Amino acid sequence: MSPFRADVLTLFPEMFPGPLGHSLAGKALGEGRWQLRVTDIRNFAIDRHRSVDDAPFGGGAGMVLRPDVVDRAVAAVADGRPLIYLTPRGEPFTQKMARELAAGDGMILLCGRYEGVDQRVIEAWRMREVSIGDYVLSGGEPAAMVVLDAVIRLLPGVVGKEESTAEESFSQGPLLEYPHYTRPALWQGRAVPQVLLSGNHAAIAAWRREQAEAITRTRRPDLWALYLRERQEAEKGAEAGARAEPHLEETQNPERNPEESQKTAETRRPLSPPESSREGSVIVKAVGTA
Ligand SMILES: C[S@@+](CC[C@H](N)C(=O)[O-])C[C@H]1O[C@@H](n2cnc3c(N)ncnc32)[C@H](O)[C@@H]1O
Q1: Within this chain, do residues 116 and 199 fall inside the same structural domain, yes or no?
Q2: pTM metric for this prediction
Q3: For 224-234, what is each residue's pLDDT tens digit?
């Protein structure tokens, strides 16, 4: 399987890989699980001053990245992978989006600067506009690093079993994670919750679930409402499924009903993409040329 290919379009290519060259992401980059190609938008400037921006029509402070320059930079790397423009006006980046992106073969991230990018080139390329939060950064580069980090750690083999992503926040629906404890069992007069020392796996799982629910309910009422809605829908779905379930013999005996048996097997497949290994060469930095 080929590696996950990430392209970043930026006016500051020297910022990359930055933090992504360290720890999990850096190790995965070295192992060829993902590739990073960084393109300097300025290399696609048209005039001899290599200008990439101009004053906004209609007046106002700041400068805007020119559509013709950005268009040439995007055209140099576009190949059907998701094309994302990082902007505070975009749809919120979520764990769900990270999972979707990690299941693909790569992505292209456009980093804005100044007041942003001319709207026409965003529309012409049908870019997905994505925000990492309700605040304004001075450039898209830290946002691109956030998106890349969240996606890369979901690629097969990047996070080892000991740091599994299966139980962390957002992995089981819109719930925040339960609290963690390690040795010593008693620290500065604070004891670890007794249930965690009990060895009773069912009781521990139930405690963790309660904690995750309580933390989500108090800290993030928006996620809590979503969780309740999803749970209600799942319960309704399960009830409807139970009512519609045909007689066991009909679905389990392929000779009696081969078509139905095939359909049932398909619907029972996991929703997430199959785990697979990715390998390939590493391009840490390949700055584009005009
Ligand atoms: C100073 S900001 C521009 C802000 C823009 N004028 C606005 O008010 O929406 C410059 C660049 O930083 C990036 N940026 C800033 N905040 C961001 C956020 N919350 N999420 C993603 N990208 C962001 C975008 O690429 C943006 O083009």
Answers
A1: no
A2: 0.83
A3: 999 999 999 99
